[in-house]
Design brief:
Blueprint (H helix, E strand, L loop, with lengths): L10 E3 L14 E9 L6 H12 L8 E5 L6 E6 L1 H8 L10 E3 L4 E5 H6 L8 H16 L40
Parallel strand pairs: 2-3, 2-4, 4-6
Antiparallel strand pairs: 1-2, 5-6
Length: 180
């Protein structure tokens, strides 16, 4: 998926709701999904992928319910590099990262990285997408800091900034595989 530096500059909300998977445990967490106008992915398709990841049993211990209006705990938004930079302020991504902005309650997912992945994932775009959703939603759930690699060769905790470096660990998209 090729993504320009900038797109429409406004978000379109994915319509409809998606219930937590049957048997999911933990607290109910309502979230909203958006896609910047002009990106080459529909809100419906992006929302389905986000919901699949958040409903996976290897993920965060919560029952995630997608909604299309308030109230919600946070938003997950696919954004061009330029909009990601604006939504992440005061942190500057330089178009090379995604972020969670707690003041906006927004996980801004960089669409360029969504489309091509990260060099740390060596071409495994599907796993990288799972990682970036879990990492930024982890911030939304209160995991504000970043983790370090416990030992070289082990799976990286999902809160390591795996987009930028693995610190000697192996890529890992799931919180449950490393305890968060």
């Amino acid at each position: 998926m090729r993504v320009a530096d900038a797109a429409g500059g406004r978000y379109v909300t994915a319509r409809g709701r998606a219930a937590p998977p049957p048997g999911a445990g933990g607290p109910l967490v309502r979230y909203l999904v958006q896609v910047e106008e002009g990106l080459p992915i529909t809100p419906r398709r992006f929302a389905a992928e986000v919901h699949r990841v958040l409903g996976d049993p290897r993920g965060w211990a919560a029952r995630f319910q997608r909604v299309d209006r308030p109230p919600y705990a946070f938003r997950v938004a696919l954004s061009s590099p330029d909009l990601t930079d604006r939504m992440c302020l005061p942190w500057r991504t330089g178009g090379r990262a995604s972020c969670y902005n707690r003041f906006r309650r927004l996980a801004a997912i960089n669409a360029r990285l969504w489309g091509r992945g990260s060099p740390t994932y060596r071409g495994d775009i599907a796993s990288y997408r799972e990682y970036v959703i879990n990492h930024e939603v982890g911030h939304a759930l209160g995991h504000h800091g970043h983790a370090a690699c416990p030992r070289p060769g082990e799976p990286a905790p999902v809160m390591v900034q795996q987009t930028l470096t693995l610190q000697g660990c192996r890529p890992n998209p799931w919180p449950a595989l490393t305890g968060g």
